[in-house]
Amino acid sequence: MPDIGFSRAVSTRTVFTKSLWDQRRSLPAWAVGLVLLVAMYVAIWPSVRDQPSISDFVEQMPKAMRALFAMSGADMSTPVGYVQVELLSFMGPLLLLLYAIATGAAAVAGEEEHRTLDLLLSSPIGRSRIFLEKFAAMAVGIALLGAVTGVALVAEGGLVGMNLPAGNVAGTMVHLSLLALVYGTLAATLGALTGHTVISRAVPAVAAVLAYVVNGLGPIVSWLEPWQKFSPFYQYAGHDPLRNGLSAPAVLVSLGTVAVLVAIALPGFRRRDVAG
Predict the structure, then answer these.
(1) Helices 127-159 and 4-22 sit at what angle, rounded to 10 degrees?
(2) How far apart are CA 238 and CA 235, in angstroms?
(3) Residue 129's closest CA among 140, 120, 119, 141?
(4) Using one digit for the tens of pLDDT, what is the confidence trace for 118-146?
(5) What is the pTM of this model?
(6) At residue 66, does pLDDT exceed 90?
């Protein structure tokens, strides 16, 4: 029989607030981890700033390595170039993608795996609303982590003279959050369509790695170049947001991708037989 208390809790608090409540420990832990990560890079900055030869080191890297792990034209002797190479080219996207994919996979497939989805569906809430509210909770979590990272960069960086343009940092965090949202939505969509957590985690992870490689190697590998602009990583970093600020076209492409994925997930979830 359905758990009446569970159903009442869902209907009174909504799936959205319950999903956020379920992250009451993990989400703050992620935020603290990102603040500490930024603090580590900020603490290293003064020693890097005093070593102009560090930029020569980047230039001496193999071309493929430089394309993958160092943003184009990044000068590590400047705050912008240093943050681009050390945080924004790899580690920052990696951490937000890990959070987004794990959260997206847990939205439906995780509930089904733990045998709680049937209880959720027994509440007076439609499947579309369940998916959308879980999606909204994921989006809020991603936005929070992006905001925390941006605030930490500006506030902590200012303590050691690593002054970054606050507006451009904000724009960069919007693009970083949208990158994570694309893959988190892909994970949630696959979970809604299949009910399998392994699929909903593995496919977005592999897709993200491939898209990262395509974006990084596109400028130096001729047969990859036509595909580069289809990579979500290109929408994230292709226009260099830390130098140039927010790109409206890139934002629209990312939001359009998310909207298409949600539009695929809703009818698929409504029609699918859910394992009991």
Answers:
(1) 30
(2) 6
(3) 120
(4) 888 888 889 999 999 999 999 999 999 99
(5) 0.92
(6) no
